[in-house]
Amino acid sequence: MKSFNFLVIALLGVITSCTIDKTDYEAEIDSQVPEYYEFKEATSLTSGNYKISIEALNGTFYKGYNELHLKVVNAQNNQSISATDVTFLPILSNNGSTSSCPHDYNLAYDSTNKYFTGYSVFTNESAAGESWKLYVSFTVNNQKYEVNKEVSVEKQNNKNLNMTTFTGKDNEQYVIALIAPQKPKVAENPLVAGIYKYNKPVNTTGTFPDPSQFSYAEVAGYTLKLDPRMPEPSMGNHSSPNNQDLTQQNDGLYHGVVNYTMTGNWTLNLILLNQNGLILKGTVVPTDFTPGVEGVKSELYIDTLF
Prior knowledge:
With 306 residues, the protein is mainly beta. It has one helix at 2-32, and strands spanning 39-47, 50-57, 61-62, 64-74, 84-94, 97-99, 108-110, 115-122, 130-140, 143-151, 153-154, 163-167, 173-180, 188-198, 216-218, 223-229, 244-248, 254-259, 265-273, 279-281, 301-305. It folds into two domains: 10-32 and 158-305, no CATH class; 39-154, Immunoglobulin-like (Sandwich). It is built from one helix and 21 strands. The strands form four sheets. Strands 12, 13, 14, 15, 16, 17, 18, 19, 20 and 21 form a ten-stranded antiparallel sheet that branches. Strands 1-2-4-8-7 form a five-stranded antiparallel sheet, with no helix packed on it. The longest helix is centred in the N-terminal third of the chain and has 31 residues, at 2-32.
């Protein structure tokens, strides 16, 4: 009888802890999970009579995935200019060394909205000793213009847009960035991510900034296996049903489904397989229910919170 009483008390402790944690997470959501859907000018660059305006969500460059809209206009009257061959190259300087991040180099023109489209997955926030500079070029009336400007990259406060960088078992450098949803629901949520690989240069560097030294590509035909868990000790590292692994779609991004059964801290445990089914990074997570113990994570994971 005494053992039964202890068991009941222990179970009540787990349930109470779960309820308290959930309440705390919901309060945290209201203040820490922003949603941005409006594109605003994040920076502008001027070359001669032309102004290049770069727009991003909330008018801010964030660590992680950033969709970008670039417009070339007359600097005097702000009228659109018929520009071609627009390129975009972000470069991070860190104590004398330089690197880049996944990005669109040759930007495509959206004739409906009348701007050039691209993206940049900034892998670092701006900090002391680390600074980002954008190098942009374009052609107007057969004349090429080149301009650059230092910009600020801010911390991403929305954990649903987190990212990770790692070296795979093939010794290649990879980046995985969450793109959607910004604010999940307690439901089956479409999950979108970008998966990129650094293109190791074949030749020695040319004139700086040589884009061939800073090139990334979307990986093709990979699979990102997904096992979401709630790693908080009170949650026992439990998972959820009806999740779908991420595979590449026509937009080049990777799409799947994550089923969040309650609000709180979730870990997306991942295993990345190449087009031949070989594991490049990630480990299987134990299926044990472990109340009171922090959950084991894959060697490849991204934390989320909603």
